[in-house]
């Protein structure tokens, strides 16, 4: 079999064009705020556009035919090419002079991880900070289209289940055509972002901070324009509650939002994954709140906790904020959860593996996979009693085929394996075990803050350069649901039929 | 009345037989030569060989003059097409046998009456509801309800412990002055014919007796015949056919614990998807060891409704040997009927017979409110409504010239069932349940006209 290289390059070229256009948008911000890097940003944008045009020009007579293999390559290399070109603004403006650092920061952006190597965020020009937030937002757009269009097609890890367009068990078809579906979901994504910007501005944030935090919330990214992240607004609970609400929304399936806006609110609320996602957050918040209230002291931290509405509210808010932030893999920081109690540290480490809902912008294993694995686990007991009985796992009242359960089991095992290998490699760079397992879980799940040396109040600048490449790799495979990237590393992918 | 029946299968044949007793003018259409020849030699009817969806054949059968067109071939689409054509060509009323029960449930929405089909009959759903009824009356081998249970028909095989074995009907009545039930038909053990009991008829051990009871008479009857009405909770259903599916679904909805054996794996998965409350097991049910593993001996009832009559009978016998008290078998082959009952399978279901009876009931609409055939007996149970013009109206039963081979079982007056003996005066608006041998049905009908 011959790969259709031309169409692959054509697609990558169009991505560059798209990326360049967004860079010019941040140039506009730079110009409006007169941060002095407008010229460098325009140069980065024009370079990217120019590269894109060249690549597209040379491949414009491609054959319009794409198979699964080209699909895998386009997705993986699409993310890589975006990160490569996306690091140009950092390098051109000298905000991050080192290429490895810049690439890591961009990859962390596009994979909506939110881990940063910037020591002094507030010193970075506004245009570049806006670009940094935009990488999250663009990454989020990519994930939406990935989740509804590409992953189901490739049949990865049970993604067929919740994909709007997938044939099979879930027939919640939004619209017969993928591009139309993508546009509808993007509109919701855009709408939520605009709404959050508005709310945050009304609550007293500056417009620049509001739009940046909105971009980073809806993409479940976690970059902030402040060194202290969202903890900067610890004296303004309303701002934090607004961010909590939108983090929660960003962790739900956007298809459900679409149903809700179409008036089918009942249908959206009946979704099993949404219910479990909500229950997880509720129960975990109660557990964490109680423990923090009685056993921990919020003020024993480098983060300032003014407690403007009293201790109980403050404890509840920070517990809720951190739980949602980690479950949705956003990674905003309002408090340092690693200092609370040893139990809560392990607890937060554990929920890094949960992830938000499928069809959202969050990373991690995803609630639906846990749901099906738990159900399947229980049914195994029943199956042991009735070896010949057909006992299917039910999701949203429909039985799902055994093959999908296997897909999900396979995904889960591969995820755990990647986590273990990821932690091992990190420890080879001399990182202590706690930090290493934290880093592996955090990068693989696209969370952001990890444990130990790389906890919520630290950043990733201390990771050696080689380690940053490894972290970039883990972020990429975690973001693209493992299989999409890892399949490129298998020999039979490249073997001719 | 001129009736055309399309399809000379078992439903068609049985229907033609029932109707021909009434000397109706019947034409039977089928493509199969042998079954037509069989019907031609056994029944007094006219037969036409050909496709019932062909215009020429329908014209040949003089469909334009017919009062009723009944399509009961095994193909649903053929039946629907034939009925539509017949209606267009001038038949008064049409009845189609279908398999998709959705059609019955949404008859109006789908507009069946509009395009010319007056009645839809689904043997599968009839069988499913028959099975459900038989579980409700678990101690009876056969049961039927009139007017939502105001009067019930119950069929019992007399064991030695039954109190009235060896007594005549009159003697039995003396022992139990408060009568809530009356025998209406008896079949002696091993005999082929049915007796309509008179005062001097003696009950014998092994008799199959059909009683009519009032609403609460059922329990009393159970006690007197030495049978306890067991509560049924755990049910095993064999066969993933439409009947099996419907039975399992209905029973599970009523709160029974249902285990359903399905042979085809894909079908099993689909059923497991549709029926979350039913435990679906992928097996053909002939594997006795597997039946044991699934605790067949703890089952209260075993229902075999697979494709194959022989398998159904055999697996019911397996269930019997494992002490399952109530067994129900779907038996398509009419010749097995008698045999199956004598080897101890309590209830037999024949969906074709059910369909034929149901259609017969429809034909008699007006005079006969409800009717059922007594399985394996050549007698019918009929429910009539008494009109002012009826000969029977305002008369005492003992003064009636009632045919010898028929008997009044009970009367439903204002929704309350009563056992009617000689001193009972029948009034207008009463609903009378009569048991009659086939040859007397016409005579009985005359009394109610």
From TrEMBL, chain B:
Start and end residues of each RCK N-terminal domain: 1-121, 232-349
Any one Gene Ontology molecular-function term assigned to this protein's record: potassium ion transmembrane transporter activity
GO cellular component terms listed in the entry, alphabetical order: plasma membrane
Keyword terms of this UniProt record: Ion transport, NAD, Potassium, Potassium transport, Transport
Domain RCK C-terminal: from-to ranges: 141-227, 369-449
InterPro entries, A to Z: K_uptake_TrkA, NAD(P)-bd_dom_sf, RCK_C, RCK_C_sf, RCK_N, Trk_Ktr_HKT_K-transport
Database matches in PANTHER family: POTASSIUM CHANNEL PROTEIN 2-RELATED-RELATED, TRK SYSTEM POTASSIUM UPTAKE PROTEIN TRKA
Protein name: Trk system potassium uptake protein TrkA
Protein source organism: Neotamlana laminarinivorans
Gene this chain is encoded by: trkA
């Amino acid at each position: 079999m011959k790969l259709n290289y031309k169409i692959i390059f054509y697609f990558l070229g169009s991505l560059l064009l798209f990326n360049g256009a967004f860079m010019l948008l941040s140039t506009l911000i730079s110009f409006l705020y007169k941060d002095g890097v407008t010229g460098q940003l325009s140069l980065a944008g024009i370079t990217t556009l120019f590269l894109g045009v060249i690549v597209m020009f040379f491949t414009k007579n491609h054959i319009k035919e794409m198979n699964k293999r080209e699909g895998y390559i386009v997705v993986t290399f699409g993310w890589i090419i975006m990160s490569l070109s996306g690091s140009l603004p950092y390098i051109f403006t000298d905000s991050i002079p080192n290429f490895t650092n810049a690439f890591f920061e961009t990859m962390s952006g596009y994979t909506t991880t939110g881990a940063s190597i910037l020591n002094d965020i507030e010193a970075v020009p506004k245009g570049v900070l806006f670009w940094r937030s935009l990488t999250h937002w663009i990454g989020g757009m990519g994930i939406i289209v990935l989740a509804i269009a590409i992953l189901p097609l490739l049949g990865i890890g049970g993604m067929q289940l919740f994909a709007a367009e997938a044939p099979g068990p879930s027939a919640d078809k939004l619209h017969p055509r993928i591009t139309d579906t993508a546009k509808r979901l993007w509109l919701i994504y855009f709408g939520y972002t605009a709404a959050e910007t508005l709310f945050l501005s009304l609550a007293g944030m500056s417009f620049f901070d509001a739009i940046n935090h909105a971009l980073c919330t809806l993409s479940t990214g976690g970059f902030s324009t402040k060194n202290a992240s969202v903890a900067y607004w610890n004296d303004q609970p309303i701002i934090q509650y607004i961010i909590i609400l939108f983090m929660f929304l960003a962790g739900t399936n956007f298809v459900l939002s679409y149903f809700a806006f179409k008036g089918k609110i009942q249908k959206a609320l009946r979704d099993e994954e949404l219910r479990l996602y909500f229950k997880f957050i509720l129960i975990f918040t109660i557990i964490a709140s109680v423990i923090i209230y009685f056993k921990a002291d919020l003020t024993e931290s480098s983060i300032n906790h003014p407690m403007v509405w009293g201790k109980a509210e403050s404890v509840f808010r920070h517990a809720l904020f951190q739980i949602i932030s980690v479950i949705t893999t956003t990674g905003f920081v309002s408090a340092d959860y690693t200092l609370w109690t040893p139990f809560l540290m392990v607890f937060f480490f554990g929920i890094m593996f949960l992830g938000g809902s499928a069809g959202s912008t969050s990373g991690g294993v995803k609630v639906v996979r846990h749901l099906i694995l738990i159900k399947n686990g229980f049914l195994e007991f029943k199956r042991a009693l009735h070896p010949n009985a057909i006992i299917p796992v039910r999701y949203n009242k429909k039985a799902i085929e055994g093959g999908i359960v296997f897909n999900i089991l396979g995904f889960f095992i591969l995820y755990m394996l990647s986590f273990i290998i990821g932690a091992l490699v990190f420890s080879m760079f001399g990182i202590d075990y706690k930090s290493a397992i934290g880093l592996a879980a955090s990068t693989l799940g696209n969370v952001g803050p990890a444990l130990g040396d790389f906890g919520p109040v630290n950043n990733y600048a201390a990771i050696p350069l080689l380690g940053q490449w490894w972290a970039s790799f883990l972020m990429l495979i975690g973001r693209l649901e493992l299989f999409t990237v890892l399949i490129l590393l298998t020999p039979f992918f490249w073997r001719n039929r | 009345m001129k009736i055309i029946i399309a399809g000379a299968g078992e439903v068609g044949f049985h229907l033609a037989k029932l109707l021909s007793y009434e000397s109706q003018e019947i034409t039977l259409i089928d493509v199969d030569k042998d079954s037509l020849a069989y019907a031609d030699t056994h029944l007094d009817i006219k037969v036409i060989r050909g496709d019932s969806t062909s215009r020429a054949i329908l014209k040949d059968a003089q469909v334009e003059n017919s009062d009723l067109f009944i399509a009961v071939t095994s193909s649903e689409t053929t039946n629907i097409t034939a009925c539509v054509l017949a209606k267009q060509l001038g038949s008064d009323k049409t009845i189609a046998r279908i398999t998709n029960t959705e059609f019955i449930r949404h008859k109006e929405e789908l507009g069946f009456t509009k395009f010319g089909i007056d009645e839809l009959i689904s043997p599968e759903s009839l069988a499913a509801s028959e099975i459900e009824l038989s579980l409700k009356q678990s101690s009876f081998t056969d049961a039927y309800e009139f007017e939502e249970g105001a009067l019930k028909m119950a069929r019992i095989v007399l064991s030695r412990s039954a109190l009235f074995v060896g007594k005549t009907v009159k003697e039995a009545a003396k022992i139990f002055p408060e009568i809530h039930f009356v025998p209406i038909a008896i079949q002696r053990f091993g005999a082929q014919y049915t007796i309509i009991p008179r005062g001097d008829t003696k009950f014998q051990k092994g008799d199959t007796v059909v009683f009519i009871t009032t609403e609460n008479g059922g329990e009393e009857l159970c006690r007197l015949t030495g049978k306890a009405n067991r509560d049924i909770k755990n049910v095993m259903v064999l066969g993933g056919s439409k009947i099996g599916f419907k039975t399992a679904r209905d029973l599970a909805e009523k709160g029974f614990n249902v285990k359903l054996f399905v042979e085809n794996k894909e079908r099993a998965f689909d059923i497991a998807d549709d029926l979350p409350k039913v435990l679906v097991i992928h097996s053909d049910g002939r594997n006795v060891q597997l039946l044991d593993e699934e605790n067949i001996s703890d089952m209260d009832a075993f229902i075999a409704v697979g494709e194959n009559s022989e398998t159904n009978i055999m697996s019911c016998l397996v269930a019997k040997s494992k002490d399952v008290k109530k067994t129900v078998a779907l038996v398509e082959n009419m010749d097995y009927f008698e045999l199956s009952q004598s080897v101890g399978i309590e209830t037999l279901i024949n969906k074709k017979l059910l369909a034929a009876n149901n259609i017969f009931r429809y034909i008699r609409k007006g005079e006969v409110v409800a009717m059922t055939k007594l399985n394996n007996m050549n007698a019918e149970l009929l429910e009539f409504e008494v009109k002012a013009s009826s000969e029977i109206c305002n008369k005492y039963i003992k003064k009636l010239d009632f045919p010898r081979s028929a008997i009044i079982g009970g009367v439903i007056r204002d929704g309350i069932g009563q056992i009617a003996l000689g001193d009972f005066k029948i009034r207008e608006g009463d609903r009378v349940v009569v048991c009659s041998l086939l040859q007397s049905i016409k005579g009985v009908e005359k009394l109610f006209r």
